[in-house]
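I trust your eye. Have a critical look at both lines of this record:
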Amino acid sequence: MIDFTHVSLRYDGAPRPTLDDIDLHVEEGELALLVGPTGSGKSTLLRATNGLVPHFTGGLLTGRVTVGGRDTAEWQPRDLADLVGLVGQDPASTFVTDTVETELAYTMESLGVGPQTMRVRVEETLDLLGLADLRNRPVTTLSGGQAQRVAIGSALTAHPRILVLDEPTSALDPQAAEDVLSAIRRLVDDLGMTVLMAEHRLERVVQYADQVVEIAAGRIVRSGDPCRVMADAAVVPPIVRLGRLAGWTPLPLSVRDARRRARTLRDGLPEVPPPRTTHAGLPGRVLASSHGLTVRYGRVEALRGIDFEARAGEICALMGRNGAGKSTLLSVLAGLVAPTSGTVEVGGVVPRRSTPRELVRRVGMVPQDPADLLYAASVAEECATADADFDVPAGTCAALLADLAPDVPASRHPRDLSEGQRMCLALAVVLSGSPDLLVLDEPTRGLDYSAKQRLGAQLARLAATGHGIVLSTHDVEVVATLADRVVVVADGEVVADGPAQRVVTGSPMFAPQVAKVLAPLPYLTVGQVAAALEQVA
């Protein structure tokens, strides 16, 4: 169904090809999963599947790409729309209508599908992806996760034979991600749809894959049976790292399989796990606070009576369903959204009433879409501008970027970077100002496990030197590794607030893989398990 034959792609002036001699075959009715480091070429390969590469991106493509028997060199992306549905990393940027329902119908209208058929497919998709309550919502008011589900639904309503997904769960809460992936798996099993997917949160998706393809530096390193590939892959989920540590063969890819093998491991571990790597002692002074905070968008009450504090030396994770109000709370702290009622203070000032110059050293925010912060024509210009804006030594921003994402070309335009590389660049820009409080909205979106570790180390250093960090995230593995405190938000209200160890182990939805495998033992990370095994050896 999908065939890449000796496919290479090189852009003018690039030191190496973005894709290098790719040979790939995906059978009809197969779910193939692309894995690899941030910037390895996964998104480029996906866009080549429907002809966006090179018809719209440029570059010299050699070799042959065929989908459903059609050569993409001879067919424009618009002519492949009935065959290939593509959902990119930034789905909201592709919306062309006003409401959820009309967005779901748009692709079908373009393909000339009849009104009655359109109506039935829209209703099916609303139910399949849990969007019925959002039917009449303006797309501009959707959260990142809601927008992602709408984009997937818009592709599905056209009933393509091939579905191409780039980071489909990156902005979804754990339950929404499970629902979407289960729906995709049903389409594969029941309708024979072919799915090619790239995803960094392998803990969510690897158990669904029929084939795993590992790519690095534009080349396919290995491909085939998921268990076999995961045995040697450089990028693996926590459950595979736990299996490698315990010596399990074959490696488990699901929590169920791991729990079945983990009895001996559980029996040999101390009941009290070693402490997670810590970066600070007790939280310090209050950097930001809200009391009775309420925010309304028209008839929608995004926050209701929120009392919240962020302290120096603390990493606080905001968790909750898509649309719960997490991003709104961050935006209020950063002065981007005005409270409807209640009070907010950051560093002794009211954010919405303060000038950017007053706020810049008190709070720095990285939004879900890092492109909102990037305006220069190259990475080097972005870094130089940040150094000048924050009056820091030249090279400060570039050094931060090199630490977060090595080998990002200084001459590259930010729009030509991968989503993960853009996120790292935006983080470097904001970190250059060394704000007292750093607020991050889905900062690990598009990042591989190594990049997440580098980001975690950077945030831990900031917390250790007295900065406060508040991050909104659906990445339970990052929370398990990094967070001191977890605040759960639901329907605009705080429903849980406490130490990360207690909050995440008390919720099946927010528990990391290791906690699920080793329950009732209160372990959260593979690092804790390794340290405990060393103690009892």
User: Anything to note?
Assistant: The radius of gyration is 23 Å. The chain is about 35% helix and 20% strand. The chain has a mean pLDDT of 90.
